[in-house]
Write a structure and sequence with these properties.
The complex is a heterodimer of chains A (193) and B (183).
Chain A (H helix, E strand, L loop, with lengths): L10 H8 L3 H23 L2 H18 L9 H27 L12 H8 L2 H7 L2 H12 L4 H8 L3 H23 L12
Chain B lengths: L2 H15 L8 H53 L2 H4 L7 H25 L9 H21 L6 H23 L8
Helix pairs in contact in B: 2-4, 4-6, 5-6
Classes of the chains: A mainly alpha (193), B mainly alpha (183).
């Protein structure tokens, strides 16, 4: 599940963090570093980039924590910053891909059969192999619990586009899983008796 | 949508949620620690230096104001008596000169603050470091332009205004603080 769920920052720590207390800020970073890193990695598929984006996220957190109003939880606020950083990084590449795809989410797969089988055996690798738009949408929707409207606002597209990407992402993941399975790995499609 | 499709989507969602969380490497934790050290040290460092820097600014401003006052007195003394009645005061030049004086003071203050910011450690990633370098290059170009001997007060004020803006952004980026509201 989303690494941000269940993270609670007590009021005293938050107050001290907002005043720039090193210990309080350290506690905040310690609790949120792993969820932020995981989110950045799942959205980008690149570990080194995820490290950079994690650092950028906390730069913004440190810069803005004194202005945090508390209308959402600290974890939700930090997650919003991390998502924004990831999407800002890929925006120019995103736009190029969108125009090249002519408003569809299709990207020709470059994997040969053997690679697709290997990918299908590992959901993490399968997720990483998705086109960026589909990867972002499926992670934000299915794991982070974003609505299509929230995703649309984040990526600068429509809710319909988000739904379409989600549908294609799921179909691709399930298809890869089915093609690569044999009997070795539990199926994503339960057997209907 | 069929029941089977719904089920497979639910299973997929559960499996995605079950993917393991990544742990930051020691190197990333060090970077985050350095970030915290810089942010909190700059905060207390800025508090300690703020009074000193305002003091320096006050001295500079006082010096400039004294220079203005003395300069105006010299102008009055040097004017031939017969020209006093008919000479119109040059309204634009004193105003530009006083604006320039303030801009010079602001720029000097920002130079002081920038010089006190720690340079050790890695606060930002390569892209931010590149932006800081670009800002510093632009400031150097402005300094070269300001060093030209034949430059009007108006031009000098315009260049100094740009310098103040760039230095403010540079200090903000290096310290992570909010930009100061300059005149």
């Amino acid at each position: 599940m989303s690494g941000f769920k269940g993270i609670e920052i007590d009021d005293l720590t938050l107050q001290r963090a907002r005043r720039g207390d090193r210990q309080a800020l350290g506690r905040l970073c310690q609790q949120l570093a792993a969820p932020v890193l995981t989110l950045c990695y799942r959205l980008t598929g690149d570990r080194a980039l995820a490290d950079d984006l994690t650092q950028e996220t906390f730069v913004e957190v440190l810069r803005s924590i004194s202005k945090f109003r508390g209308d959402a939880s600290v974890a939700t606020w930090v997650r919003r910053i991390a998502v924004s950083r990831c999407l800002m990084h890929s925006r120019s590449a995103w736009q190029r891909k969108v125009s090249a795809l002519h408003e569809s989410c299709e990207v020709p797969s470059e994997h040969d059969t053997a690679s697709r089988i290997a990918v299908a055996a590992d959901l993490s690798a399968a997720l990483k192999a998705l086109p960026e738009s589909q990867r972002v949408v499926v992670w934000l929707h299915d794991v982070e619990g974003y609505t299509h409207q929230e995703i649309a606002e984040a990526i600068g597209r429509t809710a319909s586009y988000s739904k379409s990407c989600l549908s294609r992402a799921r179909a691709r993941l399930v298809d890869w899983n089915q093609q690569g399975l044999g009997e070795a790995t539990p199926s994503l499609c339960p057997t209907v008796s | 949508m069929t029941q089977s499709t719904n089920n497979s989507e639910q299973v997929l969602a559960e499996q995605l949620k079950s993917l393991p969380e990544l742990e930051p490497t020691a190197a990333l934790r060090q970077r985050l620690d350095a970030l915290l050290d810089e942010a909190t040290e700059v905060e207390s460092h800025a508090d300690r230096n703020r009074l000193r820097n305002w003091g320096i600014a006050a001295v500079i401003l006082a010096g400039l104001l004294m220079g203005l006052i003395i300069g105006e007195q010299i102008k009055v003394i040097e004017l031939p008596p017969e020209s006093v009645a008919v000479t119109q005061p040059e309204a634009s030049e004193p105003t530009e000169f006083s604006d320039l004086g303030l801009l010079i003071a602001q720029s000097a203050l920002l130079d002081q603050v920038n010089a006190t910011l720690p340079t050790r450690g890695r606060v930002r990633n390569v892209r931010s470091a590149g932006r800081i370098t670009a800002l510093e290059d632009r400031v150097r170009l402005l300094d070269a332009a300001l060093a030209q001997p034949e430059i009007s007060t108006t031009r000098r004020a315009a260049l100094m205004r740009q310098r103040v803006g760039l230095m403010d952004t540079l200090v903000e980026m290096r310290s992570g603080q909010q930009p100061t509201q300059w005149l």
